[in-house]
Amino acid sequence: MLDLRKLRYFLTVAEELHFGRAALRLHLAQPPLTRQISALESELGFRLFDRTSRTVTLTAQGRHFLPYARAVLDQASLTEVIAGKLAAGTAGQLALGYASSIALSDLFSQTIQAFAQRFPDVQLTLVESASSSLYSQVIDGRIDIGMSRLLPESGQTEVQVLSLGGEPLVAALSSDNPLASQDEVTLAELSAHPLIQFPADYGSGLNESIEHLYRRNGLPMRPGPSGRQITSIIALVAAGRGVALVPQCTKTLAKKGVTYRPLADPEACAQLLILTRTQGRSLLVEAFMGVVDELLRER
């Protein structure tokens, strides 16, 4: 393997075309520099310089070799920089899983933007997934962080849960639904209409919150069609296939034919949770959590 130090000596002499000036730049005496260049030429099997008592010029092989030597040194410098950033937790890879409805929240977009601006050398992978699967993905390492609406089972110790609070639920109604003309709607009024949700086998944390809300109020749920994306649910509402209960951030989907109305129940909300492994949290995970904490304090 070529000695990076010798390559650096070669590059300096090639730039100066003078051994004396190159030696001064390298803080070396000239004889040791000359010996190092001769040793590099022996390793390579060809001369790099034509030398006379007055001039130093690159040989044809030296000119051809020069850009490759420079590229090796540049890559070595970059490698050293990246290694330092990896050690400091400012570079690397971070996988973030999230429930589809969370992607519409301001906190989600602001956190992603702030983190990417602060840590440009981190490759951030975003994975949309049902809340129920985020827990297992965090445990087995497929993702580093999960943004979920579903609490893990009580008693588990493998995942640390940070609650960012509840987001109010609003009713998504077809604009020609009589309820759309009201300032707010009650859950009892909604229970008379088919309820559009994520599929029962999807593992939606939002579904669980809504079903708990109906049970708490002793109200029946009229099953309606289902959609696997929050956008699909809103499209079904616009088509008049039923009503939906969605996080307040969904109002950013201003689809024609859909009206959003607040619920009369102030406790109707969807949780926003961050899941991380309890043991062995990386520096990048800690950095991400730091960004979240700063944004929360600014609110």
Automatic annotation (TrEMBL):
PROSITE patterns: HTH_LYSR (PS50931). Keywords: DNA-binding, Transcription, Transcription regulation. One of its GO terms (molecular function) is DNA-binding transcription factor activity. Residues 2-59 form the HTH lysR-type domain. It comes from Pseudomonas frederiksbergensis. InterPro entries: LysR_HTH_N, LysR_subst-bd, WH-like_DNA-bd_sf, WH_DNA-bd_sf. SUPFAM superfamilies: Periplasmic binding protein-like II, Winged helix' DNA-binding domain. Belongs to the LysR transcriptional regulatory family. This is HTH-type transcriptional regulator BenM. It comes from the Bacteria. The keyword Transmembrane does not apply. GO terms for cellular component: protein-DNA complex. The lineage of its organism: Bacteria, Pseudomonadati, Pseudomonadota, Gammaproteobacteria, Pseudomonadales. Pfam families: HTH_1, LysR_substrate.
